[in-house]
């Protein structure tokens, strides 16, 4: 079956033809589909919005694998140089949080990288094939800027940084809007305030010089100036290092359509003289809360810990993500999460003891399987996929369970067959055992394991409360 994806670059749902099957692709032959996804900066607790983006990257990867493509997936770790504003202004996020938390910028990055990876694990998102850190790819970024300088695409704003002159870039802004040429011309003709020495409003920093009289923790010594890399440059450097000058899919959140990704395109295409550098741009829309934006100040920028504190399993959130198509806004409310949990639990009840492992060839011609794959091939339409599963469960055929088992193992990963629900038993031994193991884990200060055990207890429909003497378990 053929995959169709919505490509932000062409603004159309398109047939997916990877470069390795594309007759117009003239570079050395590829034997994989390359997928690159932008990671949030590791400077604070990731929100359930950030994880919607990670979930989408994983969904793309898993869909490609289900369709039997060999995938090479890369997700970068931004651990330096991302300023508070995407438009090259404000403080470096890591330096700012370092002051706030009283630990070094390096420690901030390490701490929140670990938090993010732990969140991925709880959400059953496997690590990507490569997860390179910006700080470990500085020579590649230096080389890129040097080439752009040699090609006369850059200029220096004294005391500020080295900038890319976007007026010299053909098709700059193509990703942003359908009528980008006119909109950019209007922008350039408009009031040119707050340019801070830039030649064009859309020009962006490739390197920023450290502020005078201030020793930044992560700055570099260069022959000319102390500096730190612009945020956009790292993605161009790392994607080309791992996936080549041209690759198949670049994913990120919809906020990147107007600044970060056009800048990545500009740098990379001028560097390699290639167009399009990426064949398919896929963007997930934002997760909203109570119909509006997530804001830390409103207290609605929920984290996975908040989800667990309200006795939800992180896998209920995973089910919730599947309930919306990635390209649409999704609205988070606690009631919606409750609904996701209830539906997931109903599925678990229906599927108990019905795990049937079969070879794919034994069911791939089944209409239910065809419909499930068709839903995924329709721009990864996960709500449609869930509807196929729900309607299949009105039939009690062996193949229905074999297909759901296969989908669970390869894509859903919702522990649909692992949770056991025993009616009329006060506290099953399994739950008591998990609770005891959790006490031990806490004694050992292994809080990761303790959280994981509590998560398991929640998926078994029990709640665990810490008390002075140990714990108390109640039915959820
Ligand atoms: P931040 O660290 O808040 O700048 O977010 C990092 C990235 O995560 C953003 O650039 C988005 O691509 C993604 N992201 C942030 N918030 C959301 C959200 N509410 N929904 C979906 N993706 C988000
Ligand atoms: Zn990026």
Describe this structure in words.
- By secondary structure, the chain is an alpha/beta fold.
- It has three domains: 4-284, HUPs (Rossmann fold); 289-412, no CATH class; 429-475.
- Helix content is 41%, strand content 14%.
- The protein contains 15 helices and 15 strands.
- The chain has a five-stranded antiparallel sheet with strand order 5-6-7-9-8. A four-stranded parallel sheet has the order 4-3-10-11.
- It is globular and about 70 Å long.
- The model has no long low-confidence stretch (mean pLDDT 86).
- Bound molecules: adenosine monophosphate and zinc ion (ZN).
- Residues 40-41, 49-50, 52-53, 252-253, 255-256, 284, 286-287, 294 line the site of adenosine monophosphate.
Spatial strand arrangement across the major sheet = 5-6-7-9-8
Say how many strands there are: 15
Provide the number of structural domains. 3
Q: Please describe the biggest sheet, giving its number of strands, its sense, and whether it closes into a barrel.
A: 5 strands, antiparallel
Average pLDDT score: 86
- Helix fraction, binned, reads 40-55%
Helix-and-strand structural type: alpha/beta
**SSE succession:** EEEHEHHHEEHEEEHEHEEHHEHHHHHHEE
Write the SSE topology:
Elements: E1 4-7, E2 12-15, E3 33-37, H1 48-66, E4 71-75, H2 93-101, H3 105-122, H4 138-150, E5 154-157, E6 161-164, H5 180-189, E7 204-209, E8 220-221, E9 226-229, H6 231-243, E10 247-253, H7 260-272, E11 278-284, E12 287-289, H8 304-309, H9 314-322, E13 330-332, H10 334-351, H11 367-377, H12 382-392, H13 398-412, H14 429-443, H15 447-459, E14 462-466, E15 471-475
Helix pairs in contact: 2-3, 4-6, 6-7, 9-10, 11-12, 14-15
This protein binds adenosine monophosphate and zinc ion.
